[in-house]
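Dear support,

We are seeing what looks like truncated structure output for some complexes. This example has three components. We would appreciate it if you could run it in full and send us the complete token output so we can diff it against ours.
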Amino acid sequence: MMNTATAEFVYRLPGNTSSSRPGAHRSNSRGAGMNFVSHAKLIDQPDPRRLDLRASVSNIQKDWLVRVNKQRASITVSAIVDVSQSMRFGADQNKLQVAAEFLEALGFSAGGLGDSVSLVPFDSVKRDDLSMPARFGRGTGQTMAEVVLSSKPISPASANIDALSRCIESVAGKSALVFIVSDFHWPLADLARILEPLAGSLVVPLVIWDRTEIKPPDSKRLLSVRQMGSKHSRHLWLTPTVRQQWEANVEKRRQAIADVFAARDVKPFWISNGFDPESLSRYFMETRV
Amino acid sequence: MLNKNIWILLSLIALLVCVFLKPIVMARPVYDFQITFDISQSMKVEDHVAGDQLISRLAASKAAALDLLQHLPCGSRVGWSVFTRRRVVTLTSPVEVCDHYAGLASSLSNISSRMRWANASGVGKGLHQSIRAADGMGETTRIVFFTDGQEAPPLRSGDRGMPKTDRYPVSGVIVGVGGLNPVRIPKTVDENGQITSYWQASEVVQKPDAPAGQSNEELSSRQDVHLSKLGRLAELIYLPMDSANQLADAAMVSSLAHQKRVPVDLRWIPACLALLFLCLRFLPGRARE
Amino acid sequence: MSALGFHMPWLLLLLPLALLPLISGKRDEIPFPWTDWLPADVSGQRLHWLWQGLAALTIGLLVIALAGPQSSESLTERIGRGAEISILLDRSASMDGEVKRPILRDYQSIQVQETKNGLARQALSWLLSQRPENRYALTLFSVVPMRIVDFTDDTGFLQAGLDASGIGRGPKETNMGLALLAAIKAFDQRPYTGSRAVLLVSDGGAKLDEETRIKIKEGMQRNQISLYFIYVQSGINTPNFDLVGTDTSSNTEEVELHLFFKNLGIKYQVFQADDVASMGEAVATIDSQENLPLTYYEKNAGIDYSRVLFILALITSAALALIAAVRMETLK
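Here is the complete output from our reference environment:
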């Protein structure tokens, strides 16, 4: 998985970033970009290369006008990754492996665009020991993937929304693009509130679910399961009704997560069959025009 | 599908075998014993320590015989004889111990010194007779001979008091009962079993060739020297018995056993396997995560 | 009546193994990331309980079966025809003597030789084989009575007692009085369940003192015992009991004993037997006479329950296997 040609996806931000470091994203900084903003007097912007003759001629005050453009800037992308016990679940590939594939692709893509990427993992607490500050370079993703894959959960308990909140606070104001990579197997009640510090950033939830957790198995009938990290267990006799109920409950959950992000005008990106960079590119294309 | 439920399948197969397994005829060691009790008066001496009380030598012998009876494998045979004076009277010829256990046990409990038809004890002659009787009962019959070795009247020193037994290839065990300290011998007993008088020195025949005052035939103790000598002569094992369960260990030895084809119930083997398999299936191990 | 016992009770210490399926739940359930979206299912819960229960039951049944549960021998009351017969067999040395009956045949004197004891044993064995449902007690007597077998219907064991009486020689003297009292005593403290008889087999008479006579008479009457005296003739010079009674001048021990028995006020019959045929005849007569209803207890051998338990365990483990066939052990 790790040594195949690294996949790449394309992302872009909907608005302009305030970053001034040259890069690939539209920004509000003036400079050597292609996006025309306005004309300025040559006397104010003494750069004769940008003289706009046509504009100068038609200028009533007969001033020499130069074009003022916005430059393209680079941003910092943050990946907040759930590394709790439940992320280690999966039939063919566990969810953490899917997350690692995404990180690798993210690192590669961001490296190509000149963006820096930071990693902020959490489970029941914010995992400062696994965090990686923003850095540049195409190899960053691979390092982050390795860090995530070799991590051990601090406890068998499920991921904690307070820990997530702490992660969000640490990236707020620094990152223009924040990915929240998790299975969202924790109470959603406070999610909208804790996302508030990210008001200026684009938040993309990557909801990773394994196919075996969302689709009832069809080979056998009796299923005994236990909630990871707790003693709570469920025993199912998989009749068509129970299967339907199961799938309906999954759908309900999907809707609940989507609802939280709909308030921010964001759709979650659903992954349940391995990470596909192309569809993530399409996601950015379709939703962010 | 090879998962841990294979144990349940194995257990089921083992149980099927168990239920349909018929007893298998196998050659097993069994024992035929004609057991003779010395019921002469010296056997009434209560000097055998059993637990925290003293019981008579005859009672100790009977307890040991019962213990042996309980330990003998089915297919073994046991008969009872009693001996006093110079004669052995066979009470029952050997019968199979499992089928006739109740009869053998009740018959054993009836043996008492009240059966005594005379007041003397020629141990050697008694031994000789029981060997001869056992010889007539078939070549697999061994003897067990309970006695304290007290000869009354006493033998001349050097006299063994036993006719030659070379002609009879009978093996077995002489069991010496009684304590090693000389004790008075009860003479008369009232209806309640209380001893009312003891033999006095002047009432018994003393050793003919011992100096005056050196012979104390009115006192009795276990004659280990005499009995082991008789044992050597008759090629029998001599067992000085201190506790009732010694006999079963000493008598159930391969030299006294013979092979008999008896049906053996082997259901316990597949049953144990079935139990083992089930326990392996349900063994609580580390929780899977 | 039939208490439950175990062949190897210590194996029951393994019974806690049956708890294994109940406590292995943690290992036996698949860890799942988010059970909240699984519907609560009553039938699934019940099936899980059934699964655990069956497993525990199977283990429990196996442990109990291995411990070898068996009911102790139980007794069933039956009513048949027959009697309780206390056999009193003379084991004195004289019984080892041979019956000498010179028979003139083909002008040759042939000595038919057979010990009296042997005769008696053959006849009694025949009685045992004909009437196994009778209950017998066997007492040998010489100078002392020796109770060999208490009342039982284990004819195999009785036969062993009879066989044994032919081994070796018996003691010399006889004390019939003590023997009779012992035979009577066998009936004491026994519920009256059918006709009772003492079958005395001897080759001689006995002088009984007055005290013994009173005790015998009293005991015989109290226990309602009939008395059969099989007199094994020593030779041709023994008295003929059929003629006794009219001629009181006869004062041999045998005749005296016969007269004493006759005047006991109980059912009494004497047989003079001197060969197998006449002994057999005597026994046949007793058999036909002691044929009143008899309450007896049929001994049922201890029932071995392990087979039943094994079959039950087979059934439960088959059910367990059925559930196992549809039970998911992994989600992969």
